[in-house]
Amino acid sequence: MRAEGEGLHPSGVTSSAQLLYTNVDRVVGGQQRSGWQIMATSDTMTESMADWIRSLVNSDLSGFSVLPGFPTPEQITQAERRLRQVPLDHGVLLLHTAPAGVDTTGRTNSMTHAVILPDTEAAPALRTAELWRSPGWVTPFGPTAVREAALPDLRALVPGTAAGGDAVAEFLTEDGRAEILVALADVLAPVLDARALADGDRSSLAAGSTSPTVLMGVGSTDEAALWLSAVQHCCAPITSRFLGYSTAEVIATPTDLDAVVSSSTDLAFVPHEVLRGYDPRREDVVVIDSRQTGPVTPVTTWGLAVAAAVSDIATWVAAQDALHTALSMLEDHHGLTAAWPLCVAEIMEPGLLTSTGDANLDRAIDRELIRCMPAAVAKSDYLTELIGDWLLSSTDADAAAWYAKVMAVPEDAPVAGVVTGLVRAFVESAVRDLAWLQDDVRQTSPSVVRCLATWSLDPAQSTVVRDAVREAERLVPDDPVSTLRLADRLTRDGLRLNEEELTRLVVPAVHVLVSATGPEARDAILAGRPCPQVMATVRTLVNDSLREIVGRSHVTLPLLDPRVASWLDTPHALPELLETEAALATLSGEVPTPSRAAGCLARFPVPFTLRPKIRSLFSRAATPVEVAALTRTCADRQEIWTEALVRHPLGEGAVPLAAGLLALKNHSDSEMLARRYQRVSPPTAAAVLALGRSCPFLTGVGLTESVTYAYNMLMSLDVLDARYSRDAEYSLDAWGATEEQEILVDLAVLVMILGLWGTHQPVDLSGLSPRTGELAASRAEWLSTRVSDSVFLRTPSDHVTGPLLDACAIGLYLGTAGAKAYPDEAGILKAAEDSSPPWARDRAAVVTQVLRTWTAGWDDAQRENWTSYLVDRCLPGSDLPKWLDKQILRPGSGLFSRFGGGR
User: Fold this and answer.
1) Which run of H or E residues covers position 85?
2) Within a domain: 799
3) Omega of the bond leading into 571 within 30 degrees of 0 (cis)
4) Is there a domain that residue 97 lies in?
5) How far is 757 from 755, CA to CA, in rounded Å?
6) DSSP for residue 535
7) Torsion (CA) 203, 208, 210, 213 in degrees, nearest 10
8) Of 204, 257, 387, 490, which one is least surrounded by beta carbons within 10 A?
9) Which residues of the chain have pLDDT under 50?
10) Is 845 a domain residue?
11) Looking at the whole model, is its pTM more than 0.70?
């Protein structure tokens, strides 16, 4: 449900206003005006307000019985009417529509008299439904009477007798009507309460907009008015003005119903027959038929109170008197919920409504008096004392009942007076009801948390809080799990224990979490999740315990079981040592955070070693730039660096980390270019491999140096395989599993093949394991695809060459087109191939692809310069230029057709 023209309704109404709307022929300012129009407005009615009201007018009264063609005066007086109420920001709009006969053309006419009643009275006595058939409404009949109609003095708008208190009492005596009134109250209570507690603020009325629209079938609009008046007689008049209603709605189609549901009408009356076409699947409509009665089980306090009030006519009359008396004690009725007056009537005359001993109503009254604490009550000493005595004199020992009472305290109510007594009563009952207190399924209420926190932080309550905690401790088993659980349940509900009390309760659990003993108790602790205050204390105490351990000597991390650290982790700041434990624990989880772990380890205050499993997880997840932050306090820093380089040899920061690691092992990259090593340490091997990608094999390194470094890369693979033979993550079985690793293996294999063609020396892998040779052979099969990628070859923008490429070009010529002219050199090359491993033989196509890819972007000048250089330095007078131009620099067919299919 929402109001029509949202944002257009009048706000800030400060005075009453009137409007007449009808179909009339009249002369205004010398001009003839005919048709539907605003006929008159009061001086206080603004043009925008009048336009808005006009948009709400429905002149159709055809839903119920219509007048005959020539009605008698009595029939006109008793004709069906519509009274509609629209709540405003600070007041209420009443729209009264009555039949007006026919207009001058014979068409059916009606007169709508709109009245705005401002919210200027703090305690109004008028119930708007009592204005039904008031003589103050403008109800002309016939064209002449309509034309002569004028706005009345509002003082003439007085309650009629058709829907007054006596008429309502008589109306409710008919069987079944009491149950229907209970049903109406029960379904309308949420709407009225939401608006009353918002003190009429229209912006807050949206709380009631999600409630369904009530569609009630009646036999006449007079019956509708009596139902409205009955509802309004069960609450304060000012509260009833928050209800949008209409005594007559015309609903012939689903679209008509949609219009009512989307309007400001909460309760719409329709003829009984309209209900036959209603779709029962609609969730935004509640249907009540006044002809269908039966037992009703109310769920709201208002529903329960109304059910008791209408149990018989004597109770109804007595309840009405008591309700009026209760309201008379307040100077201001703003903020009263629908049920509040009847609840106060009961505590003023105990047994008035609860003579049947309905415990549900007793507790509902308690909650209502707590959740509705209008400011005006404080000005009445009698009501203040009466309500306080009623609420606090209860002998109820049920913790759940007291909890419900505290939960009903409004969010903005100060924790003082009655609220303080309620909180204390709850705490004292809760610590004696251990089963309820430690119920894990029970949810906490923000309202209770606020009240208990404020109350327990009051120094005046310290003794009460301490005694309550000691009482609860006496009931629980003396073990770490039970005392931690007790601390959690007490604080979860909002109780703020002082540091000494809370520490005493959680220290046993902290000892279990930090020590390696008591696995069953630890598992039981980890199965729960204490509230934030308890967790904060546990974290602080655990960190203090870790500080004691760290202060002794060299430590092995992590100090805590990873499950414990994960349990203690939080998105918020952690104490420094616990932060390290939590960061390391994430490495075992689904979303590891190696950067967090690296930062913590870099700042760790004392020397430490990582446990093998955690070290492996960290090395596997961290990048070179992350592990580079480790300092000498990490005893296994070299091992971590090594494993990180193996996993991410081309990752960010890999080159500087590898260079640093090589220097740490007293080596340099120049040494790796100068001689072949048979064995190096695993850290050196990882560094050599990672630095291989940045080695300028094809441009800036000597011929033999290139081959030497490539061999040392393969030797490094051999070393790492031996070191990690039992770890599939780092052994040769893993190499080629990632693009980074493939690139390095392929690069080493390619340089060895290029070295064969450039040096005319066989590929020599002596000293390396067969497994390394097998890896080289498997990767060699893919080189034809790899070397066609200039990114892999890292072709420089200036297209320079180096000794290895120059020598390969000469070797390729001698082994193919120049073989006849230079048989000795060709024979040496052939012998070198035959002495090489099978995977290095017959790789002319690979060498050709390397040269073609490298020179693909050259211009004519670059091609000519390189050709001249090779001829002058190597083979003057040969047909090398022609061969280069045709097969390498401007390839067509020829050589590629002979070798292109080779691998």
Assistant:
1) strand 82-88
2) yes
3) no
4) yes
5) 5
6) H
7) -130
8) 204
9) 1-13, 200, 202-204, 207, 893-903
10) yes
11) no
